[in-house]
Write a structure and sequence with these properties.
single chain, 475 residues, mainly alpha, 20 helices, globular
Amino acid sequence: MGKYKNLLSNTAIFAVGTFSARILGFLLVPLYTYALAPDQFGTASLIIDTSNLILPVMYLGIADAIIRFGLERAVRKSDVFTTGFLTIVLGFAVFLLFIPLMMRIELISQYTMLVYLYVLASSMRTLMTFFIRSMGYVRLFAFDGIITTLTTAGFNILFLLPLDMGVEGRVLATVLADSLSAISIFTFMRLYRYLKFKDFDRSVAISMLRYSVPLVPAAVMWWITNLSDRYFISYMVGLHYNGIYTVAYMIPMIIIYISAIFIQAWQISAFSETSPEETQKFFTTVFRCYYTFIFLAVSGLMLISRSMVRLLTTNPEFYVAWRYVPFLLIAVAFSCFVTFYGTIYNVVKRNAMVTITTAVGAVLNIILNFILIPIWGPQGAAVSTFASFFCVFLLRVIDTRKFIKIDMQPLRLSLNLALLLGQTWIALADLPNGFLLQCVVIILMVVCNFKYLLYLIRRMMGMLYARRTASNTRG
């Protein structure tokens, strides 16, 4: 019971900061679509996507090791922080050697310096925030998320409206906000105390790199599966459609934001040491509740996706984006499940299969993009993404059973997927009574998942009641 309580408690804390911060960022979409044309919006997205591809390669995936080793009591915090800092600094120094190569990438060549600034600022903020999170400062981590999003919003408004800086303004707003976050945490928490270049255990650094380096190919493959669609669309059908596709992705990102909140808390709970029987039961119960929530959230967002696109965009050129949302929503659902199963590899420190399974999905995504985008345009990219994540999910379900056997209730999961695919057909067919038919699908999903939906509600209410009772007792 204590593990479930801690998981819910940490999820609630991350939700206060992370979700409120993400929602504010989501509300900036009307600003982007007002101030930027579709091709400009597509270019800014490519700069950010390219930077996010470079990040784990540059710092050798050390962010994951900071969380994993920072949570271990037997490891000194200074060894973890110093290793992370040195890895990022040395990685960035090597990355500087690739400036001539970066300037040859046609779509973003004129924005090379922006990529470098983005990578440096983001990597330093990642180091600071992941380190304080591993130390147990989850409330500070959440608070930083809110403040950083507010500063990002402020810089975006300043750079895109009065200064009319276009693509440069969109990217610089994030760079400055990340920089302020990293400097503030480093100073306020006095993290310089943990920088010990002479007196740090090099064996810890080696162990951290052995843990993180195998995750780098997986991160690259994950990027290919998740974001390479935008490069394919840009080259095959143009930056204009990439901008529209990026807007379509904004709605499924809500699911990713919600999932990220949970996964942050889940990583802490999953690494706690218990017996194999208790671990299996814990993982099974949590995953059943997790996919229940994700499927229902996807169905609800699909119902209102067309209205959300119109609400979020001020330029009519973006309205067609709603047609790409349904398959992207289902794709994102399975990407969440893939991430959940990835924590099993993290727990048992067997990260090789993370790379292998993700590589299979990436290769499948590339092949399907080549085939489907010329036929269906951006919709082909959405279908490719769904198929890729679904394939990786199946592979991880099969492979992880030798470590932790999760009884996911495959019949119930399959029924949920069938209902979502049916809802997708209803939405894209644009039927006269389509909205009502989608409501019927949602009702069927609630019935199908009622047991675990009720379980989730009871857990949440129990936690809130316990907190209220404890507060009254102290009062």
